[in-house]
């Protein structure tokens, strides 16, 4: 097995959750999301982020508005919908359960035979 491939798959599995959390804090521009994800070592490129944002929008979890920019074309700012807030809460509950379950397994001390 390839360790790097497994690590990438683990990151992909929680990317949507992280993006929803970023948007939950307030209206946000996609480039700012990319910067935060990159700073957190969640390696993401535009080609991954934009299709995911479109999927979240089509699912009714996020919406966006166009805002004029003084330094270029208008920018799209994303925010969660009410359904998105509920969805994020469900993911947070699941995340907390997964942390608990994983810690139960990974922190279990074995006794010598």
Describe this entry's structure for a reader.
- Strands 1-3-2 form a three-stranded antiparallel sheet.
- The protein starts with a helix and ends in a 7-residue tail after the last helix.
- It has a single domain (3-106), classed as Orthogonal Bundle (Arc Repressor Mutant, subunit A), CATH 1.10.10.
- The longest helix is centred in the C-terminal third of the chain and has 25 residues, at 82-106.
- Helix 1 packs across helix 4 (82-106).
- The protein has four helices and three strands.
- Helices cover 62% and strands 17% of the residues.
- It has helices spanning 3-24, 30-39, 46-58, 82-106; strands at 28-29, 62-69, 72-80.
- It is elongated and about 70 Å long.
Briefly, what is this?
It contains four helices and three strands, in the order αβααββα. It has 113 residues and is an alpha+beta fold.
- Proper CATH architecture: Orthogonal Bundle
Strand content: 15-25%
Number of helices: 4
Which geometry do the CA atoms define? elongated
Q: What level of helicity do the residues show?
A: 55-70%
Order of helices and strands: HEHHEEH
Output the radius of gyration.
17 Å
Cα-to-Cα separation, first versus last residue: 30 Å
- Return the average pLDDT rounded to an integer: 92
Low-confidence stretches: none
